[in-house]
Write a structure and sequence with these properties.
- The chain is mostly helical.
- The protein folds into 2 domains: 111 residues; 89 residues, no CATH class.
- Helices cover 78% and strands 0% of the residues.
- It has 6 helices and no strands.
Amino acid sequence: MASLLIGAQIALGFLRSAIVVIVGVLAVICLIDWMVRTRRINPFNPVARFTRRIVDPIILPMERRVIRAGGLPSSAPWWTLALAVVVGFLIVTVLDFLFQQIAGIAFALQMGPRGLFVLLVQWTFLVLKGALLIRVITSWLPISPFSPWVRWAFSLTEPILRPIRSVVPTMGMFDLSPLIAYFLLGLIEGVLLRGFGPTMM
């Protein structure tokens, strides 16, 4: 199991490096395409002809969305680059999270009941903190709290936030209860896991 985890960690490191290289190459391509679109490169230049023939068809779906949103077609390369950065970051984050969970399960199995207790406590607080973050993010967006996608987050966090709100009132538009709850959850998790050695995540 240890060798498998080491192999997975090496593969994850390689993937991170590959994504950084791909985004770097894409940044150069998007810069050149932007320079062609804004006439900073002669449109009859071989580089300009190459980007119009190869790069522009790839960026075309993003260009259509930018135009529908009222933006300029020349900004499409930058929006394409921004999307690539976000997608790359999400891929690395999800894979890193999955690796940590697998490593945590392996550690818990080796430690026996103590390890399983630590794993269950960490998973419980991870879900609660995730629900708090989802609740905060969706409060900034036009998403109903009764939507099936986010209702679970409200159901989990409301029993925690309600007593905090009764002590700490909202400050105008700002509700500090999620921030306080997140901090308190971290403290409670630390107290529960004190004496169990280093955490697994």
